């Protein structure tokens, strides 16, 4: 054995920086990437990862990095959670694929049972599994249209729902998601979103005013009877962790019910313990007709789902739903392991504790550094919006320097936002207080260095 860590050694849960980032080995691999991989893919963190465990990722040069991104909110239970790993190992030894609509297997059924049980609403529910968030959103829309026999879909400013053709149409932001990739699907109507930090109206009546506006637009521009579904992220993710004011989601849900519209919560980023509830809509006691999940559902394996009232899910003719890989047995095994980890390690409660640490540290930084215009989020889904000091003008340049500084110190932090100026925190929920505070101290230094 050499002095460097061997693959079989457990990965210490500590930050350890031995080279610049990228180090020489990562730099060489990134040069190969440049030759072999499409230039259309971004790279948020310039280091090539060889393994990861809990809240630590290790790169080719032996740097150990604190992960505050969870692979964009996916490894909520931590990187390579032992329950996920062992379930996957067992599953892969048993069989790798049948296609569920060819010959079924228990894992798929068990994941659907768990989803029907965990999602809000005591009514009878059923589920269908897919591979990605975008694919699940597509299916949600398809099912809602079939069920209602209507076509119009209501979406919101700052929304993100995916990169397929229909979900690009649902997504708000042009660059980089849509630019040059059209034409897009029709019958999509975008509504104003109450974005508290940038709301020009009266803050006290924001939820009611925004709702009035949305209902007026639906009635005048679409006709409520033509609307199949309203789809919304309970906290907008890529849009910049925009938390709607209390009363907005419940008002929308009520309006949808009154008009026979399917209310769809896209919980792809907010779901599975992230916000300190199993699902973010629970914060307001909202029971969506349909809920889309992905990311945190399966601890890193590709899995997504649509769960809805049984009558909606059963309205499709046999063979109307499907796909080769959706609900693949290995991904289902991973999901069962991840759900077990959330339950047994009380990660819903842990998300609240992490949220409290993040929120108080970020609020303290906001008091010191006027480039922080806003601190917002819920549970382990928190963000800061970076602006020009003394104004609300977005400051993506300052955000980029902060991120760069953190990278050099071995802290992986993601960005977001319609204006490209939001730093978002999505740590794995198994991160220790010490590691989280160490990462936040580095963020503080990065802001001080501006
Ligand atoms: N709905 C709310 O956040 C995915 C996008 C990463 P897929 N968000 C991360 C990127 O740059 O492509 C997302 C989401 C919400 C849907 C999706 C789409 O999920 O699994 O990426 O298809």
Helix content: 25-40%
Report low-confidence residues grouped into runs of 5 or more: none
| H and E string | HEEEHHHEHEHEHEHEEEHHHEEHEEEH
Mean pLDDT: 97
CATH hierarchy class name of the largest domain: Alpha Beta
* Count of discrete structural domains: 2
Radius of gyration: 22 Å
Q: Structural class of the helix and strand makeup?
A: alpha/beta
In DSSP terms (H or I, runs of 4 or more residues), the helix count works out at 13
Estimate the strand proportion: 15-25%
CATH topology name of the largest domain: Aspartate Aminotransferase, domain 2
Small-molecule binders here are:
ligand PLZ
What is the fourth-level CATH superfamily of the largest domain?
A: Type I PLP-dependent aspartate aminotransferase-like (Major domain)
**Outline, from the CA principal axes?**
globular
**End-to-end CA span:** 43 Å
CATH level-two architecture of the largest domain: 3-Layer(aba) Sandwich
Number of E strands? 15
Order of strands in the sheet with most strands: 4-10-9-8-7-5-6
Largest sheet: 7 strands, mixed
Task: Please specify the SSE layout and strand pairing.
Elements: H1 24-36, E1 49-53, E2 56-59, E3 64-67, H2 70-73, H3 82-94, H4 106-118, E4 125-130, H5 133-148, E5 152-156, H6 165-170, E6 188-191, H7 206-222, E7 227-232, H8 248-258, E8 262-266, E9 290-293, E10 304-309, H9 310-313, H10 329-344, H11 347-368, E11 372-378, E12 381-386, H12 396-408, E13 411-412, E14 414-416, E15 422-425, H13 433-448
Parallel strand pairs: 3-13, 5-6, 5-7, 7-8, 8-9
Antiparallel strand pairs: 1-2, 2-3, 4-10, 9-10, 11-12, 12-15, 14-15
Helix pairs in contact: 3-10, 4-10, 7-8, 11-13, 12-13
The structure holds ligand PLZ.
């Amino acid at each position: 054995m050499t002095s460097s860590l061997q693959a079989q050694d457990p990965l210490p849960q500590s930050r350890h920086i031995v080279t610049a980032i990228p180090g020489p080995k990562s730099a060489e691999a990134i040069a190969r990437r440049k030759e072999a991989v499409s230039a259309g893919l971004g790279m948020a963190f310039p280091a090539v990862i060889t393994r990861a465990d809990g809240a630590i990722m290790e790169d080719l040069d032996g740097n150990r990095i604190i992960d505050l991104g969870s692979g964009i909110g996916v490894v909520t239970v931590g990187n390579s959670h032992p329950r996920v790993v062992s379930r996957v190992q067992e599953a892969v030894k048993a069989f790798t694929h049948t296609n569920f609509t060819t010959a079924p297997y228990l894992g798929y059924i068990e994941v659907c049972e768990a989803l029907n049980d965990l999602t809000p609403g005591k009514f009878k529910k059923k589920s269908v599994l897919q591979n990605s968030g975008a694919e699940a959103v597509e299916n949600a829309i398809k099912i809602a249209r079939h069920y209602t026999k209507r076509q119009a879909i209501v979406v919101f400013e700052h929304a993100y729902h995916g990169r397929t053709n229909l979900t690009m149409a649902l997504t708000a932001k042009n660059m980089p998601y849509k630019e040059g990739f059209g034409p897009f699907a029709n019958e999509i109507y975008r509504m104003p979103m109450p974005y508290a930090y940038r709301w020009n109206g009266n803050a006290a009546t924001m939820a009611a005013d925004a709702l009035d506006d949305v209902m007026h637009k639906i009635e005048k521009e679409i006709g409520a009877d033509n609307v199949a579904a309203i789809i919304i992220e309970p906290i907008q993710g890529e849009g910049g962790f925009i938390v709607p004011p209390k009363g907005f989601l419940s008002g929308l849900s009520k309006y949808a019910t009154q008009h026979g519209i399917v209310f769809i919560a896209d919980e792809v980023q907010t779901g599975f313990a992230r916000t300190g509830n199993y699902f973010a809509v629970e914060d307001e006691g909202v029971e969506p007709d349909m809920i889309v999940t992905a990311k945190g559902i399966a601890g890193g394996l590709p899995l997504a789902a649509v769960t809805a009232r049984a009558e909606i899910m059963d309205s499709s003719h046999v063979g109307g739903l499907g796909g080769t890989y959706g609900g693949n047995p290995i991904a289902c095994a991973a999901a069962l392991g991840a759900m077990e980890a959330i339950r047994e390690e009380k990660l819903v409660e842990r998300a609240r504790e992490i949220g409290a640490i993040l929120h108080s540290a970020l609020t303290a930084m906001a008091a010191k550094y006027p480039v922080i215009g806003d601190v917002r989020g819920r549970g382990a889904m928190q963000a800061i919006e970076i602006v020009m000091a003394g104004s609300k003008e977005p400051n993506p340049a300052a955000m980029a320097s902060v991120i760069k500084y953190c990278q050099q110190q071995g802290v992986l932090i993601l960005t977001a936002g319609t204006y490209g100026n939001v730093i978002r925190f999505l740590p794995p929920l198994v991160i220790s207080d010490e590691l989280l505070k160490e990462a936040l101290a580095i963020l503080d230094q990065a802001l001080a260095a501006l």
